[in-house]
Write a structure and sequence with these properties.
heterodimer, A: mainly alpha, MetI-like fold, about 0% strand, B: alpha/beta, D-Maltodextrin-Binding Protein, domain 2, 2 domains, five-stranded mixed β-sheet, 10 strands
Protein backbone atom coordinates (compact mmCIF):
# COMPACT_ATOMS: atom_id res chain seq x y z
CA UNK A 1 0.00 0.00 0.00
CA UNK A 2 1.17 3.54 -0.73
CA UNK A 3 1.85 6.15 1.92
CA UNK A 4 -1.40 7.88 1.08
CA UNK A 5 -3.43 4.72 1.66
CA UNK A 6 -1.67 4.12 4.96
CA UNK A 7 -2.33 7.66 6.15
CA UNK A 8 -5.97 7.24 5.13
CA UNK A 9 -6.11 4.04 7.18
CA UNK A 10 -4.51 5.70 10.21
CA UNK A 11 -6.95 8.62 9.95
CA UNK A 12 -9.97 6.33 9.57
CA UNK A 13 -9.06 4.35 12.67
CA UNK A 14 -8.45 7.54 14.65
CA UNK A 15 -11.76 9.05 13.49
CA UNK A 16 -13.71 5.85 14.22
CA UNK A 17 -12.24 5.48 17.73
CA UNK A 18 -12.99 9.11 18.61
CA UNK A 19 -16.49 8.96 17.12
CA UNK A 20 -17.20 5.79 19.10
CA UNK A 21 -15.91 7.40 22.29
CA UNK A 22 -18.17 10.43 21.77
CA UNK A 23 -21.04 8.09 20.98
CA UNK A 24 -20.48 6.28 24.28
CA UNK A 25 -20.66 9.52 26.21
CA UNK A 26 -23.63 10.96 24.30
CA UNK A 27 -25.40 7.89 22.94
CA UNK A 28 -25.72 5.66 26.03
CA UNK A 29 -27.43 8.34 28.16
CA UNK A 30 -29.64 9.15 25.16
CA UNK A 31 -30.58 5.51 24.79
CA UNK A 32 -31.38 5.33 28.51
CA UNK A 33 -33.51 8.48 28.36
CA UNK A 34 -35.47 7.22 25.36
CA UNK A 35 -35.95 3.79 26.93
CA UNK A 36 -36.87 4.73 30.48
CA UNK A 37 -38.11 8.30 30.70
CA UNK A 38 -41.30 9.89 29.44
CA UNK A 39 -40.80 13.58 28.70
CA UNK A 40 -41.98 16.29 26.34
CA UNK A 41 -40.23 16.14 23.01
CA UNK A 42 -39.23 12.52 23.43
CA UNK A 43 -40.68 11.52 20.07
CA UNK A 44 -39.00 14.50 18.41
CA UNK A 45 -35.64 13.60 19.98
CA UNK A 46 -36.08 10.02 18.80
CA UNK A 47 -36.70 11.22 15.24
CA UNK A 48 -33.77 13.65 15.33
CA UNK A 49 -31.33 11.00 16.51
CA UNK A 50 -32.58 8.42 14.01
CA UNK A 51 -32.78 10.72 10.97
CA UNK A 52 -29.15 10.21 9.84
CA UNK A 53 -29.94 6.49 9.49
CA UNK A 54 -32.61 7.09 6.86
CA UNK A 55 -31.58 10.39 5.25
CA UNK A 56 -29.12 10.28 2.37
CA UNK A 57 -25.70 10.98 3.92
CA UNK A 58 -25.34 13.95 1.60
CA UNK A 59 -28.43 15.52 3.18
CA UNK A 60 -26.97 15.01 6.64
CA UNK A 61 -23.73 16.48 5.34
CA UNK A 62 -25.59 19.48 4.01
CA UNK A 63 -27.21 20.10 7.41
CA UNK A 64 -23.81 19.83 9.05
CA UNK A 65 -22.49 22.51 6.69
CA UNK A 66 -25.51 24.72 7.45
CA UNK A 67 -24.76 24.40 11.16
CA UNK A 68 -20.98 24.18 11.30
CA UNK A 69 -19.73 25.85 8.09
CA UNK A 70 -17.94 29.18 8.23
CA UNK A 71 -21.30 30.86 7.70
CA UNK A 72 -23.28 28.29 9.65
CA UNK A 73 -25.46 28.89 12.71
CA UNK A 74 -22.69 27.76 15.06
CA UNK A 75 -19.82 28.02 12.60
CA UNK A 76 -20.17 31.75 11.94
CA UNK A 77 -19.89 32.91 15.58
CA UNK A 78 -17.05 30.46 16.12
CA UNK A 79 -15.23 31.78 13.06
CA UNK A 80 -15.83 35.39 14.10
CA UNK A 81 -14.42 34.69 17.57
CA UNK A 82 -11.46 32.47 16.72
CA UNK A 83 -10.82 32.72 12.97
CA UNK A 84 -11.09 28.95 12.91
CA UNK A 85 -13.68 26.76 11.29
CA UNK A 86 -14.18 23.04 11.65
CA UNK A 87 -15.00 22.45 7.97
CA UNK A 88 -12.17 20.79 6.01
CA UNK A 89 -10.34 19.70 9.15
CA UNK A 90 -10.11 16.13 10.41
CA UNK A 91 -12.37 17.11 13.31
CA UNK A 92 -15.10 17.54 10.71
CA UNK A 93 -14.64 13.88 9.79
CA UNK A 94 -15.09 12.99 13.47
CA UNK A 95 -18.28 15.05 13.67
CA UNK A 96 -19.70 13.50 10.51
CA UNK A 97 -18.85 9.96 11.65
CA UNK A 98 -20.29 10.60 15.12
CA UNK A 99 -23.62 11.89 13.81
CA UNK A 100 -23.92 9.09 11.28
CA UNK A 101 -23.07 6.36 13.80
CA UNK A 102 -25.19 7.67 16.67
CA UNK A 103 -28.54 6.13 15.59
CA UNK A 104 -26.99 2.65 15.34
CA UNK A 105 -25.77 2.82 18.93
CA UNK A 106 -28.88 4.50 20.34
CA UNK A 107 -31.31 2.09 18.70
CA UNK A 108 -29.38 -1.04 19.68
CA UNK A 109 -28.66 0.14 23.23
CA UNK A 110 -32.23 1.36 23.71
CA UNK A 111 -33.66 -2.03 22.76
CA UNK A 112 -31.26 -3.71 25.20
CA UNK A 113 -32.20 -1.32 28.01
CA UNK A 114 -35.91 -1.75 27.32
CA UNK A 115 -35.54 -5.52 27.62
CA UNK A 116 -34.15 -5.25 31.16
CA UNK A 117 -36.72 -6.54 33.66
CA UNK A 118 -38.33 -3.53 35.34
CA UNK A 119 -38.97 -5.54 38.51
CA UNK A 120 -35.23 -5.67 39.11
CA UNK A 121 -35.06 -1.87 38.84
CA UNK A 122 -38.02 -1.54 41.22
CA UNK A 123 -36.31 -3.87 43.66
CA UNK A 124 -33.22 -1.64 43.60
CA UNK A 125 -35.46 1.38 44.22
CA UNK A 126 -37.10 -0.26 47.24
CA UNK A 127 -33.64 -1.03 48.58
CA UNK A 128 -32.97 2.70 48.58
CA UNK A 129 -31.01 3.14 45.36
CA UNK A 130 -31.46 6.38 43.43
CA UNK A 131 -32.33 6.27 39.73
CA UNK A 132 -28.71 7.05 38.85
CA UNK A 133 -27.43 4.24 41.07
CA UNK A 134 -30.03 1.84 39.69
CA UNK A 135 -29.04 2.70 36.15
CA UNK A 136 -25.33 2.27 36.87
CA UNK A 137 -25.61 -0.85 39.04
CA UNK A 138 -28.58 -2.70 37.54
CA UNK A 139 -29.92 -1.51 34.20
CA UNK A 140 -26.75 -0.76 32.24
CA UNK A 141 -24.82 -3.84 33.43
CA UNK A 142 -27.76 -6.04 32.42
CA UNK A 143 -27.98 -4.32 29.04
CA UNK A 144 -24.21 -4.43 28.58
CA UNK A 145 -24.03 -6.86 25.69
CA UNK A 146 -26.59 -4.91 23.69
CA UNK A 147 -24.79 -1.66 24.39
CA UNK A 148 -21.43 -3.11 23.36
CA UNK A 149 -23.01 -4.55 20.20
CA UNK A 150 -24.32 -1.06 19.43
CA UNK A 151 -20.88 0.42 19.98
CA UNK A 152 -19.32 -2.15 17.66
CA UNK A 153 -21.86 -1.30 14.96
CA UNK A 154 -21.27 2.43 15.53
CA UNK A 155 -17.52 1.89 15.19
CA UNK A 156 -18.02 0.09 11.88
CA UNK A 157 -20.34 2.81 10.61
CA UNK A 158 -17.86 5.51 11.62
CA UNK A 159 -15.08 3.63 9.86
CA UNK A 160 -17.09 3.50 6.64
CA UNK A 161 -18.67 6.96 6.62
CA UNK A 162 -18.43 8.59 3.21
CA UNK A 163 -21.08 11.10 2.10
CA UNK A 164 -21.36 13.42 5.08
CA UNK A 165 -17.58 13.30 5.56
CA UNK A 166 -16.96 14.29 1.96
CA UNK A 167 -19.28 17.27 2.32
CA UNK A 168 -18.08 18.63 5.66
CA UNK A 169 -14.43 17.55 5.74
CA UNK A 170 -13.63 17.47 2.03
CA UNK A 171 -11.17 15.05 0.52
CA UNK A 172 -7.72 16.42 1.33
CA UNK A 173 -4.97 13.81 0.96
CA UNK A 174 -3.09 13.27 4.20
CA UNK A 175 -5.49 15.45 6.18
CA UNK A 176 -9.13 14.49 5.72
CA UNK A 177 -8.97 11.57 3.29
CA UNK A 178 -10.36 8.56 5.14
CA UNK A 179 -10.34 5.03 3.71
CA UNK A 180 -13.74 5.30 1.96
CA UNK A 181 -12.68 8.60 0.38
CA UNK A 182 -9.33 7.13 -0.64
CA UNK A 183 -11.15 4.24 -2.33
CA UNK A 184 -13.41 6.70 -4.15
CA UNK A 185 -10.45 8.75 -5.38
CA UNK A 186 -8.45 5.65 -6.32
CA UNK A 187 -11.31 4.38 -8.47
CA UNK A 188 -11.89 7.83 -9.99
CA UNK A 189 -8.26 8.07 -11.00
CA UNK A 190 -7.91 4.45 -12.08
CA UNK A 191 -5.47 3.38 -9.35
CA UNK A 192 -7.24 0.06 -9.05
CA UNK A 193 -4.51 -1.79 -7.16
CA UNK A 194 -4.61 0.62 -4.28
CA UNK A 195 -8.38 0.64 -4.23
CA UNK A 196 -8.47 -3.16 -4.12
CA UNK A 197 -6.23 -3.37 -1.08
CA UNK A 198 -8.37 -0.88 0.81
CA UNK A 199 -11.60 -2.51 -0.32
CA UNK A 200 -10.40 -5.91 0.90
CA UNK A 201 -9.32 -4.39 4.19
CA UNK A 202 -12.66 -2.67 4.85
CA UNK A 203 -14.61 -5.77 3.84
CA UNK A 204 -12.59 -7.95 6.22
CA UNK A 205 -12.93 -5.48 9.06
CA UNK A 206 -16.69 -5.18 8.54
CA UNK A 207 -17.06 -8.98 8.60
CA UNK A 208 -15.20 -9.14 11.90
CA UNK A 209 -17.38 -6.39 13.31
CA UNK A 210 -20.60 -8.13 12.24
CA UNK A 211 -19.48 -11.44 13.76
CA UNK A 212 -18.56 -9.77 17.05
CA UNK A 213 -21.82 -7.78 17.15
CA UNK A 214 -23.80 -10.92 16.31
CA UNK A 215 -22.20 -12.93 19.13
CA UNK A 216 -22.81 -10.14 21.63
CA UNK A 217 -26.41 -9.82 20.42
CA UNK A 218 -26.96 -13.57 20.82
CA UNK A 219 -25.64 -13.47 24.39
CA UNK A 220 -27.83 -10.50 25.21
CA UNK A 221 -31.05 -12.46 24.75
CA UNK B 1 -57.46 -12.09 1.99
CA UNK B 2 -56.01 -14.38 -0.69
CA UNK B 3 -57.66 -12.52 -3.59
CA UNK B 4 -56.57 -9.20 -2.14
CA UNK B 5 -52.92 -10.13 -1.96
CA UNK B 6 -53.17 -11.69 -5.42
CA UNK B 7 -54.60 -8.45 -6.75
CA UNK B 8 -51.80 -6.52 -5.07
CA UNK B 9 -49.21 -8.83 -6.63
CA UNK B 10 -50.82 -8.30 -10.04
CA UNK B 11 -50.62 -4.53 -9.62
CA UNK B 12 -46.95 -4.69 -8.62
CA UNK B 13 -46.08 -6.95 -11.55
CA UNK B 14 -47.87 -4.72 -14.07
CA UNK B 15 -46.19 -1.59 -12.71
CA UNK B 16 -42.78 -3.24 -12.98
CA UNK B 17 -43.58 -4.46 -16.49
CA UNK B 18 -44.70 -0.97 -17.52
CA UNK B 19 -41.46 0.50 -16.11
CA UNK B 20 -39.32 -1.96 -18.05
CA UNK B 21 -41.31 -1.47 -21.25
CA UNK B 22 -41.10 2.31 -20.86
CA UNK B 23 -37.37 2.13 -20.45
CA UNK B 24 -37.03 -0.01 -23.56
CA UNK B 25 -39.18 2.43 -25.55
CA UNK B 26 -37.02 5.38 -24.41
CA UNK B 27 -33.89 3.54 -25.51
CA UNK B 28 -35.12 3.11 -29.09
CA UNK B 29 -35.44 6.86 -29.82
CA UNK B 30 -32.26 8.54 -31.07
CA UNK B 31 -30.32 9.47 -27.99
CA UNK B 32 -26.82 10.89 -27.76
CA UNK B 33 -24.95 10.53 -24.48
CA UNK B 34 -22.37 13.26 -24.03
CA UNK B 35 -19.90 13.29 -21.15
CA UNK B 36 -19.15 16.96 -20.49
CA UNK B 37 -16.56 18.63 -18.29
CA UNK B 38 -18.64 20.48 -15.72
CA UNK B 39 -17.02 23.84 -16.52
CA UNK B 40 -18.83 23.64 -19.87
CA UNK B 41 -22.23 22.78 -18.38
CA UNK B 42 -24.31 25.84 -19.30
CA UNK B 43 -22.70 26.33 -22.71
CA UNK B 44 -23.16 22.68 -23.67
CA UNK B 45 -26.75 22.58 -22.46
CA UNK B 46 -27.54 25.56 -24.68
CA UNK B 47 -25.61 24.02 -27.55
CA UNK B 48 -27.44 20.72 -27.05
CA UNK B 49 -30.82 22.47 -27.14
CA UNK B 50 -29.97 24.04 -30.48
CA UNK B 51 -28.61 20.73 -31.78
CA UNK B 52 -31.83 18.96 -30.78
CA UNK B 53 -33.92 21.67 -32.43
CA UNK B 54 -32.12 21.29 -35.75
CA UNK B 55 -31.95 17.48 -35.60
CA UNK B 56 -35.54 16.31 -35.17
CA UNK B 57 -36.08 13.37 -32.83
CA UNK B 58 -32.64 13.55 -31.27
CA UNK B 59 -32.30 13.75 -27.51
CA UNK B 60 -28.97 14.80 -25.98
CA UNK B 61 -28.25 13.41 -22.53
CA UNK B 62 -25.47 14.83 -20.41
CA UNK B 63 -23.10 13.31 -17.93
CA UNK B 64 -21.32 16.08 -16.04
CA UNK B 65 -18.19 15.74 -13.93
CA UNK B 66 -14.49 16.45 -13.71
CA UNK B 67 -12.74 15.58 -16.99
CA UNK B 68 -10.56 13.03 -15.22
CA UNK B 69 -13.58 11.27 -13.71
CA UNK B 70 -15.36 11.22 -17.06
CA UNK B 71 -12.29 9.80 -18.81
CA UNK B 72 -12.05 7.14 -16.13
CA UNK B 73 -15.71 6.20 -16.69
CA UNK B 74 -15.06 5.83 -20.42
CA UNK B 75 -12.02 3.64 -19.70
CA UNK B 76 -14.30 1.50 -17.55
CA UNK B 77 -16.67 1.05 -20.49
CA UNK B 78 -19.35 3.69 -19.88
CA UNK B 79 -21.78 3.85 -22.85
CA UNK B 80 -20.83 7.37 -23.93
CA UNK B 81 -21.01 8.69 -27.50
CA UNK B 82 -19.09 11.95 -27.21
CA UNK B 83 -16.51 13.13 -24.68
CA UNK B 84 -16.15 16.88 -24.16
CA UNK B 85 -13.07 17.43 -22.01
CA UNK B 86 -11.86 20.62 -20.37
CA UNK B 87 -8.22 19.54 -20.44
CA UNK B 88 -6.01 18.04 -23.10
CA UNK B 89 -4.28 15.41 -20.94
CA UNK B 90 -7.49 13.43 -20.31
CA UNK B 91 -8.17 13.18 -24.05
CA UNK B 92 -4.54 12.20 -24.70
CA UNK B 93 -4.93 9.40 -22.18
CA UNK B 94 -8.02 8.06 -23.97
CA UNK B 95 -6.35 8.39 -27.36
CA UNK B 96 -3.36 6.41 -26.15
CA UNK B 97 -5.71 3.66 -25.04
CA UNK B 98 -7.42 3.78 -28.45
CA UNK B 99 -10.75 4.84 -26.92
CA UNK B 100 -10.93 7.90 -29.14
CA UNK B 101 -9.29 8.30 -32.52
CA UNK B 102 -7.15 11.16 -33.71
CA UNK B 103 -9.46 11.60 -36.67
CA UNK B 104 -12.59 12.15 -34.56
CA UNK B 105 -10.97 14.55 -32.12
CA UNK B 106 -11.10 18.33 -32.27
CA UNK B 107 -10.05 21.28 -30.11
CA UNK B 108 -13.05 23.58 -29.74
CA UNK B 109 -12.27 26.18 -27.06
CA UNK B 110 -9.64 27.86 -24.97
CA UNK B 111 -9.99 29.03 -21.40
CA UNK B 112 -8.20 31.24 -18.87
CA UNK B 113 -7.48 30.64 -15.22
CA UNK B 114 -8.54 33.12 -12.56
CA UNK B 115 -8.54 33.44 -8.79
CA UNK B 116 -11.85 34.28 -7.13
CA UNK B 117 -12.74 35.28 -3.60
CA UNK B 118 -16.09 35.54 -1.75
CA UNK B 119 -17.79 38.80 -2.81
CA UNK B 120 -18.00 39.96 0.82
CA UNK B 121 -14.48 38.91 1.78
CA UNK B 122 -12.48 41.70 3.44
CA UNK B 123 -9.20 40.27 2.19
CA UNK B 124 -7.94 42.10 -0.87
CA UNK B 125 -5.95 39.84 -3.17
CA UNK B 126 -4.17 41.36 -6.14
CA UNK B 127 -1.46 38.84 -7.01
CA UNK B 128 -0.56 35.22 -6.32
CA UNK B 129 1.91 36.08 -3.53
CA UNK B 130 -0.97 37.57 -1.51
CA UNK B 131 -2.29 34.04 -1.01
CA UNK B 132 0.63 33.46 1.37
CA UNK B 133 -0.74 36.10 3.75
CA UNK B 134 -1.71 34.85 7.15
CA UNK B 135 -5.29 36.05 6.82
CA UNK B 136 -5.77 33.67 3.92
CA UNK B 137 -6.48 30.40 5.71
CA UNK B 138 -7.79 28.22 2.92
CA UNK B 139 -7.40 28.15 -0.84
CA UNK B 140 -9.35 25.71 -2.99
CA UNK B 141 -8.23 24.19 -6.29
CA UNK B 142 -9.65 21.24 -8.19
CA UNK B 143 -7.96 17.95 -7.34
CA UNK B 144 -5.05 18.00 -9.82
CA UNK B 145 -5.39 14.25 -10.37
CA UNK B 146 -8.83 14.50 -11.94
CA UNK B 147 -9.63 18.20 -12.45
CA UNK B 148 -7.86 20.02 -15.31
CA UNK B 149 -8.44 23.44 -13.67
CA UNK B 150 -6.66 22.13 -10.59
CA UNK B 151 -3.81 20.78 -12.66
CA UNK B 152 -3.33 24.14 -14.38
CA UNK B 153 -3.51 25.86 -10.98
CA UNK B 154 -0.76 23.57 -9.70
CA UNK B 155 1.29 24.23 -12.82
CA UNK B 156 0.95 27.97 -12.36
CA UNK B 157 1.72 27.91 -8.63
CA UNK B 158 4.79 25.74 -9.25
CA UNK B 159 6.02 28.13 -11.95
CA UNK B 160 5.55 31.00 -9.49
CA UNK B 161 7.46 29.07 -6.82
CA UNK B 162 4.49 29.16 -4.45
CA UNK B 163 3.26 25.55 -4.60
CA UNK B 164 5.18 24.11 -1.65
CA UNK B 165 4.49 27.10 0.60
CA UNK B 166 0.78 27.17 -0.24
CA UNK B 167 0.25 23.43 0.14
CA UNK B 168 -0.84 23.50 3.80
CA UNK B 169 -3.67 25.89 2.86
CA UNK B 170 -4.86 23.96 -0.15
CA UNK B 171 -8.17 22.16 -0.31
CA UNK B 172 -8.91 19.87 -3.25
CA UNK B 173 -12.35 19.94 -4.83
CA UNK B 174 -13.99 17.15 -6.84
CA UNK B 175 -14.44 19.45 -9.81
CA UNK B 176 -14.03 23.10 -10.68
CA UNK B 177 -17.65 23.98 -9.87
CA UNK B 178 -17.27 22.56 -6.39
CA UNK B 179 -14.21 24.79 -5.96
CA UNK B 180 -16.34 27.73 -7.07
CA UNK B 181 -19.09 26.66 -4.66
CA UNK B 182 -16.70 26.57 -1.71
CA UNK B 183 -15.72 30.16 -2.50
CA UNK B 184 -19.32 31.33 -2.98
CA UNK B 185 -20.30 29.81 0.36
CA UNK B 186 -17.41 31.61 2.03
CA UNK B 187 -15.90 28.35 3.31
CA UNK B 188 -12.57 29.28 1.77
CA UNK B 189 -10.80 32.60 1.16
CA UNK B 190 -9.83 32.08 -2.46
CA UNK B 191 -10.09 29.56 -5.26
CA UNK B 192 -8.71 28.81 -8.72
CA UNK B 193 -11.39 28.49 -11.40
CA UNK B 194 -11.90 29.36 -15.06
CA UNK B 195 -12.96 32.87 -16.00
CA UNK B 196 -16.03 31.28 -17.63
CA UNK B 197 -17.11 29.87 -14.26
CA UNK B 198 -17.29 33.26 -12.55
CA UNK B 199 -20.49 34.45 -14.26
CA UNK B 200 -22.44 31.44 -12.94
CA UNK B 201 -22.04 32.82 -9.41
CA UNK B 202 -21.50 36.48 -10.22
CA UNK B 203 -23.29 37.84 -7.14
CA UNK B 204 -21.40 35.78 -4.62
CA UNK B 205 -17.84 35.61 -5.90
CA UNK B 206 -15.48 38.26 -7.23
CA UNK B 207 -12.50 37.88 -9.48
CA UNK B 208 -9.42 38.81 -7.49
CA UNK B 209 -6.61 38.43 -10.04
CA UNK B 210 -5.51 36.26 -12.93
CA UNK B 211 -2.34 34.19 -12.66
CA UNK B 212 0.19 35.24 -15.34
CA UNK B 213 -0.77 33.30 -18.48
CA UNK B 214 2.81 32.26 -19.20
CA UNK B 215 2.85 30.17 -16.00
CA UNK B 216 0.42 27.51 -17.23
CA UNK B 217 -1.34 25.98 -20.19
CA UNK B 218 -2.53 27.03 -22.68
CA UNK B 219 -5.87 25.55 -21.63
CA UNK B 220 -7.20 24.01 -24.80
CA UNK B 221 -10.37 21.91 -24.58
CA UNK B 222 -10.85 18.98 -26.98
CA UNK B 223 -13.93 16.93 -27.84
CA UNK B 224 -14.02 13.54 -29.51
CA UNK B 225 -16.27 10.70 -30.60
CA UNK B 226 -15.86 7.79 -28.22
CA UNK B 227 -14.92 4.48 -29.78
CA UNK B 228 -17.68 1.90 -29.67
CA UNK B 229 -20.48 4.45 -30.04
CA UNK B 230 -23.57 2.98 -31.66
CA UNK B 231 -24.28 6.29 -33.42
CA UNK B 232 -21.02 7.39 -35.05
CA UNK B 233 -22.81 9.57 -37.63
CA UNK B 234 -24.83 11.45 -35.04
CA UNK B 235 -21.81 11.78 -32.76
CA UNK B 236 -19.77 13.23 -35.61
CA UNK B 237 -22.61 15.60 -36.48
CA UNK B 238 -22.55 16.81 -32.87
CA UNK B 239 -18.81 17.40 -33.09
CA UNK B 240 -19.29 19.34 -36.34
CA UNK B 241 -21.98 21.42 -34.68
CA UNK B 242 -19.74 22.11 -31.68
CA UNK B 243 -16.81 23.27 -33.79
CA UNK B 244 -18.93 24.95 -36.48
CA UNK B 245 -20.27 28.53 -36.51
CA UNK B 246 -23.31 27.70 -34.33
CA UNK B 247 -21.25 26.05 -31.64
CA UNK B 248 -18.63 28.79 -31.73
CA UNK B 249 -21.29 31.47 -31.30
CA UNK B 250 -22.71 29.77 -28.22
CA UNK B 251 -19.27 29.16 -26.72
CA UNK B 252 -18.28 32.80 -27.32
CA UNK B 253 -21.47 33.96 -25.62
CA UNK B 254 -20.48 31.98 -22.51
CA UNK B 255 -17.01 33.51 -22.55
CA UNK B 256 -14.97 30.73 -24.12
CA UNK B 257 -12.16 31.74 -26.50
CA UNK B 258 -11.42 30.09 -29.83
CA UNK B 259 -8.72 27.41 -29.74
CA UNK B 260 -5.33 28.45 -31.11
CA UNK B 261 -5.01 27.49 -34.79
CA UNK B 262 -3.51 24.06 -35.37
CA UNK B 263 -4.28 22.64 -31.93
CA UNK B 264 -6.34 19.51 -31.44
Amino acid sequence: MTGESLSALALSVRVAILATAINTIVGVPLAYLLARRRFRGRAALDVLVTLPLVLPPTVTGYYLIVVLGRRGWLGAPLYAATGWSIAFTWYAAVVAATVMALPLLVRTARAAIESVDRDLERAAHTLGRSEWQTAMEVTLPLARNGIVAGLVLAFARALGEFGATLMLAGNIPGRTTTVPLAIYTAVQTGETGDALALVALLTGLSCVVLIVAGRLGARAT
Amino acid sequence: MATRSRRLALVIVSVLAAMIAGDAAAATSRELVVSVAISLKEAMEELGRQFEASHGGVKVRYNFGASGQLAQQIEAGAPVDVFVSAGKAEMDRLEKKALVTEHDRRAFARNVLTVVRPADSPIDLVRAEDLLEKRVARVVIGDPRTVPAGRYAEESLRALGLWERLRPKLIFAENVRQALDYVSRGEVDAGFVYVTDVTTRSGRVKEAFRPPDDTYGPIVSPAAVVKGTKQPALANAFLDWLTGPDGRAVLARFGFLSPPAGTR
